[in-house]
Amino acid sequence: MSQTDELKDIRKHKRVKDMLLGFLERPALKWLCEHSPAWLTPDILTTIGLVAAAISFLGYLLSNFHPAYLLISSFGMLLNWYGDSMDGSLARYRKIERPRYGFFVDHTLDAVAQLIIFLGFAASPYARFDVAMSTLVVYFLMDILVLARTSTQGEFKITYGKIGPTEVRALVVLINTVLMFWNPVLTLPQGEFRLYDMVLIIIGVSFFGVFIFEVQRLSKLLRDIDEGKLREK
């Protein structure tokens, strides 16, 4: 089988999850898989992850009335982690993987969930719409990088610098907790920037830097591989 054929076989993709919180997440997912009821399926978990994003959005929307509603957003983020992290884990644990279907549905619905959550940031009194949407664009660029890397290298890598979706969710929950008691505002000529704005800008700039670096690095690597094969012919 040629390398091109191997890349078409999703089951052969190598999963790379070098996460900062991996030492907590891996045993937690293992325990949850072992104790999940028989009626709980990967499809149900995927749906839970999407519904959880809507719950998080609702909490951010209601936070316009009182910061305590951020607890709803944090619950939504935790539930989103559960659904999004468990659907594939449970399928692999029970050996009921549907590689193509699972890969397609998981990543398309992840994009919808990300859109809902970032719209929640923008709908809250804690983040500017332009900052939230700009960071969402960068987040989508990282998603594209993940999918392009998977299809060209057969390597599914969702963490960079040990930071991945789980760490981002944990950071969001932490910020939600802080904002219930303290909401600093930085006034600049461009307008007011709150804590969420500053964190989103840092995340956006950092991820965009990673995106540019990885695109350049992988482009050179893949070019060398392809040109080497052409010389062999």
CATH domain class name: Mainly Alpha
Q: Any idea of the CATH topology?
A: Four Helix Bundle (Hemerythrin (Met), subunit A)
CATH architecture: Up-down Bundle
Q: Report the average pLDDT across residues.
A: 90
Query: What's the overall geometry?
Result: globular
How many domains comprise the coordinates?
Answer: 1
State which percent range the strand residues make up.
5-15%
**Helix and strand sequence:** HEHHHHHEHEEH
Number of strands: 4
Radius of gyration: 20 Å
Would you tell me the structural class of the helices and strands? mainly alpha
CA-CA gap between termini: 17 Å
Q: What kind of sheet is the major sheet?
A: 2 strands, parallel
Strand order of the biggest β-sheet: 1-2
- Share of helical residues: over 70%
- Unreliable spans are 1-7
